[in-house]
Amino acid sequence: MGSKDHAVFFREMTQLILNEMPKAGYSSILNDFVESNFFVIDGDSLLVTCLGVKSFKWGQNLHFFYLVECYLVDLLSNGGQFAMVFFKDAEYAYFDFPELLSLRTALILHLQHNTNIDVQTEFSGCLSQDWKLFLEQHYPYFLIVSEEGLSDLQTYLFNFLIIHSWGMKVNVVLSSGHESDTLRFYAHTMESTDRNQTFSEENETVIQSAYKSLIQHLEERRVLALAPHFEHLKWNDMMEEAYQTLFLLQHLWSEGSDIQRVLCVTSCSLSLRMYHRVLVHSNCLSLQEVEDFCRLRCLCVAFQLHLPLSQRACSRVITCSWIRNSDSFLKMNKWCEHFILSNLNVFGCWNLNLNHVSDLYDEQLLKNIAFYYEFESTQEPHLNLGDSIRRDYEDLWNVVSHLVKEFNVGKSFPLRTTRRHFLRQEKSVIQEISLEKMPSVGFIPMTSAVIDEFVGDMMKDLPVLKSDDPVVPSLFKQKTSDELLHWHAQRLLSDDYDRIKCHVDEQSRDPHVLDFLKKIQDYQQFYGKSLESISTKVIVTQTTQPKEDSSGTSGEILQNTKPHQITKKSKKKSFLKEDQNKAQQNDDLLFSIEEEMKKNLHSGIRKLEDYLTSCASNSVKFGVEMLGLIACFKTWKEHCRGEGKILKDLSIAVQMMKRIHSLLERYPEILEAEHHQYIAKCLKYLGFNDLANSLDPTLIGHDKNKKKYLIDIGPARFQLQYMGHYLIRDERKDRDPRVQDFIPNAWQQELLDVVDKNESAVIVAPTSSGKTYASYYCMEKVLRESDDGVVVYVAPAKSLVGQVAATVENRFTKTLPAGRTLCGAFTRDYRHNVLNCQVLITVPECFEILLLAPHRQKWVERIRYVIFDEVHYLGREVGTKFWELLLVIIRCPFLVLSATINNPNLLTKWLQSVKQYWKQADKIMEEKFISEKQADKCLNFLQDNSYKNQSYEVRLVLCGERYNDLEKHICSVKHDDVYFDHFHPCAALTTDIIEKYGFPPDLTLTPQESIQLYDTMAQVWETWPRAQELCPEEFILFKNKIVIKKLDARKYEENLKAELTNWIKNGQVKKVKRVLKNLSPDSLSSSKDMVKMFPLLVEKLRQMDKLPAIFFLFKNDDVGKRAGSMCTFLEKTETKSHPHTECHSYVFAIDEVLEKVRKTQKRINTKKNPKKAEKLERKPMCRAEYINFLENLKILEISEDRTYADVKALCTEITRNKGSTLDRVLPRVRLTRHGKELKALAQRGIGYHHSGMYFKEKEFVEILFVKGLIRVVTATETLALGIHMPCKSVVFAQDSVYLDALNYRQIM
Predict the structure, then answer these.
(1) Of 701, 697, 102, 699, nearest to 342 (Cα)?
(2) How sure is the predictor about 551, in pLDDT bands with cuts at 50, 70 and 90?
């Protein structure tokens, strides 16, 4: 089938792409301060795009290369990491444009030899297997392609590339319509949607057939394009002729030369020889005329070698074109240039300078020379040339004469031996650019102390226009308004603060208003307490010192009076009684834990660990840990005694080793010999004999009867493979008096020091590592210092403002003067206590309103610290100007927080330069203040000393260790079921990436993944020299070590990464490729049915105990639909267990308790024992609570297999009559838009969260999720802005062009 037979498919493919173009999103494809995603640029698309630039003039090679490099510099300056690909098949599209064929070849040479860009030219076409393998190995985020070619055939080639990219799940960025600024690079992106992928899959055979027919058609056109110029000579013949020409030149110039000279002499000589062979049609140039033209070409190159660009740029523009008779030779010459350039790579050892490959042809210069000698010159041509130009010209022509052996081409002079003009004689031949008066270029003169101070002596070296220059008034537009404008946004300088909605008058003393404000505060504290269980800290201002006791010794006498002594004894007695009660409660709790562990070990262990977190006594903790170890050991023995067991439940052994780790590491001073002996016995039963002997050498050797207890795996491998999440981290033992709740790490202590010294800092630490604590410590410090200081917390979006404000209200309480409050909030939607609070939570654009408002400067002077959370939004396309402006204009110390800044050193350096500027400015202001004060002319604005005690240092505080290890899985649909395949992080790498960039700093492995990497390396290279050394059991940090710590596992990981890198350096690239391939998951089926299978995915996670989970989608409509599909699925599911579910077991347990209560009441009533009756009344479950519980269950009518909610949390909420979470949050969404739907979903333990929801609805979902009443949430990326919603699983349920490296790391 030919290309005509596929015309219908070509139109169908084109129509599909045209339909997708209007849907293309226009956004920034690169982000500053964020690691760029790897992408690919189609080189031919870039060539076509630059040729289409309006300013480009054909024949100006240097200008074309300038446009290309500007494009690439924009990408590189914004942190782009990319490769450029030139397909071999794409060359066929230029056979009708031989001048572009040579230009394309020169572009490839330039990029390969004069830049550091990765240029790929080995792929035959976009449907080749090599290209497919490249995409699978490198995972490009997008491919930049042109939507239109120079011809229909080239457009079809681009269309095939687009369709294939979509089929490979690679997004497409159109090469046209790009814009860039200092921080971003904008483009139109067409996503690889399910529809596009389906089209590629369903038409795979047709696509292959149509592509082959198109290439075959282009090859036929190549033959037709060559025939008029080279007759019987074929493509390979011409390549051989070019090779022979270069071979002869190499012998003449054996020491080497530059590309301009080489291409000139070889292309001219080859063109002359070919023209001599095919000669000559009557309407073409004669051979002698062609020789004259080649002389002009050699002279033009001589000028290019010597004329500076500034002179060439001022040359005349010759508007007339070459005569039609020269067309045949010009095309032949361009073909020859292409053949010569294509053969250069063969002569690799030849010393050829390719620096000027971008300046091979200057048509305007050639036309100027031809015009001069044809119309203006009256003298001998060689008399007008300089010695160096004439000498170079003669050398070039002599080499041409030497290379053309078939006939004599004549001497170098005279330059013209024929009379025919090569340029057409037209009326308007010259456009005298050089004669036009160029406008004056320079800076507009002005007087400004600020500019003089900022620029300094630089102004002396810059051109400045005169004030009477006519260009100066022409640059000023007519003033339309006297009102000032924002310098950066060009908005009217007005105060938007008053336009923002305020719910109540904050200064009102109306009782109803005060009552409303009290309710708001109560709810905020409830909201904050539901997010984190932290006790409220009472803040007392340090300036308020307690009064000294003026009574002196009389106070001591009063303390010794008899009434006081009686009161003291009674207090002591009550304290003792309280201690006895607590001890009794502890004993009861420990007994219940011990009993629970006998019934169900894992349930008992969970209770044991809950108790350990609440217990303060080390001796009690030690006893509880020993209790847990004994229970685990007994359970392990009973488990292993079971007959016919093939597989052992290693989770019991894991719990046993976890207790051993805790005992040895946390309580070494309490452990005695008998404890060591018991621990050694436990290790012996697990089969860890060497570890057991290291604790107790007196243990008897191997016992055959104990074989059934052994786990048949080495201790190091067991700890890494099965205990990765439980490995103990190295923690400081010395407490910091500034922190009561935990012992801070070294980097956290550095943060506290930063705040104490009033310094600024850039803090880069992973999610959940504890960086936010510095923010609260900073708030507490300012709150304690005075009642006037203000801390501003800048959140990236309004969705985070409410949550942070609630957390602050819950963490701190402080008695403030009338009219002052602790916390306020300010967003575009509402404001509350903004100017009278001490902690303001706001967003960047609102903070800018306050900073730039002239009449808010008194409030600005009160700011003591500014905290910027999620500062990587500085690299986003929306709102960047606010972040940048705020970081520049604030003068107080600041904290910059982020988990995903790629180049923190660069950001810190920039912020330090800003601080140094303010340091110099403050110094000048202080000197001016002193001088003005001495002169008694001090101005009010000079009296501001609020920043006098601050430090101007900006520290960089880094923490690279994430507290929780992440495991990644790929979800797919196989055989109508949902499967999870573990995705090893190294599988995302390629050998090229490892060789060029090494392992990414944020690519960390879990201990299990380190074991997997070692096993794969050992499997691939059976004779690996270091296999024994890096074996887990032999590794120096693991050998005979009972407690392997997290840091040990991290060093083992680093050793494996270094070893894999050395494999590449030592030439074992193929082995590394095999390792990476073996680590990749098996081939996965398409996930196109994931929408339909979504409820099964959630059900699978529940079965794996991986709830709570958050499912991220990127369209608001899809968020609600997926949540609804889960609810429908649960409604259709038949209840598998009615009376014996966990939820109903609570009912039966309560029934039993109540029955006992009734019997006891009867017995007490008969005996009339009032004390026992009173004790009975204090039972936790009364009759009314039970009735309420049953009523709620009736309303709910859902068993635990038909809801995703945590049943225990649900029952806890139901049994609470007053003050429960549900009582507080349900009324708030009663009248909201999505309230009814959210309540129905919440009964099933489901919720959704996106930016289009009312803030009360979002808070409803957040609170219930933290409480466990909702355990499945579908959400957009707005939930990834630092909102506190801890979960076990994060699922990306939808792909999006916005899911780049930044968003992925931020969400995780």
Answers:
(1) 102
(2) very low
